[in-house]
Amino acid sequence: MDAGVLRILLCNGLHGMADWPTLAGALAQAFAGNYTSMLQSVLPPIDPEDGALPDDSFFAEIIITRPLRLPPPPPDPGPGDLWLQVLGVATDGSGACSRRVEKPRCEVYCELFMSRIPDPEPIKCFVDMDTYHLHLAVSIPIDSGLPHALRASPVVIVEKWIGWNGADYAPKWTSWEPGQATTFMDSRSDVAEIFVMLAEFDENTEVPGRRDEMLAWARRISVGTRAAYRLDPPDTPERKVFASHSPLLLRPHKPYKLCTLKLEDEEPLEPLGRLMT
């Protein structure tokens, strides 16, 4: 409800106890968004001939001549919600991997989980401004052909949000149970590029050594996939053209415009054994 509406209700002469039922009804109308009904219940009638307002209806004149402010449109989903939406994974925290890996050389397990840091300076009359982090951990199937040392990724931060998780504009993942993972599968190529983008987020660069660790892991697991050509293209004219015509799935300079593609049936471009030697 607009602050101006509440001001009108409280300042328009509804001070006596006899007027409290009217005030309560008007407040209910205002909270429901029925501002016309609210005005009719608390304001003096306007002369239909000249439309003039009564002299003592100063606040009524303000609200009638100035349109009410509408709530701002909801913000675009952040990286966490958008990634889950693109892959068709439930964003309510109940998502679990419903199928087995069919192509272990191309797919990886992804786990997203939330952690919450309580507001260090809570104020009783305001909602707590807690800090929420969305974490990502990736596991590579044992029969992927990659060295076992690469099977577990660094645990990184996908998104950070500060505020009340009950707000309409709060990311959906902020309502998850802390520490309870939502699991799904994505292509190894896409995840490698996602890690490169996340390595530039402030939440990850602030941890000493994490950025370099993320970039190194992403490049090593991208071997044999499309991402290998985009992350570290060989110095040949043909492959440079290939890399320049391959649209990046993620753009580091727009971290809140994350765009991933659905899982594709891709096969390694070259035998993994030869590339790993």
What's the short version?
The protein has 277 residues and is an alpha+beta fold. Helix content is 33%, strand content 13%. It is elongated, with a radius of gyration of 28 Å.
Low-pLDDT ranges: 53-66, 236-277
Number of H- or I-type helical stretches: 11
Content of β-strand = 5-15%
- Distance between the ends: 66 Å
Structural class: alpha+beta
Form type: elongated
What's the average pLDDT? Answer: 69
Order of helices and strands: HHHHHEEEEHHHHHH
Task: Domain count, please report it.
Answer: 2
The strand count comes to 4
Topology diagram in text:
Blueprint: H1 3-11, H2 20-31, H3 35-42, H4 58-65, H5 79-87, E1 107-117, E2 130-139, E3 156-163, E4 182-187, H6 188-198, H7 202-205, H8 210-221, H9 226-231, H10 237-244, H11 272-276
Antiparallel strand pairs: 1-2, 1-4, 2-3
Helix pairs in contact: 1-2, 2-3, 6-8
Structure description:
The chain is α+β, with helices and mostly antiparallel strands. It folds into two domains: 3-65, no CATH class; 79-276, no CATH class. It contains eleven helices and four strands; from the N terminus they run αααααββββαααααα. The chain has helices at 3-11, 20-31, 35-42, 58-65, 79-87, 188-198, 202-205, 210-221, 226-231, 237-244, 272-276; strands spanning 107-117, 130-139, 156-163, 182-187. It has a four-stranded antiparallel beta sheet. α1 (3-11) runs antiparallel to α2 (20-31), α2 runs antiparallel to α3 and α6 packs antiparallel against α8. The chain is elongated and about 80 Å long. It starts with a helix and ends with a helix. Mean pLDDT is 69; it is low at 53-66 and 236-277.
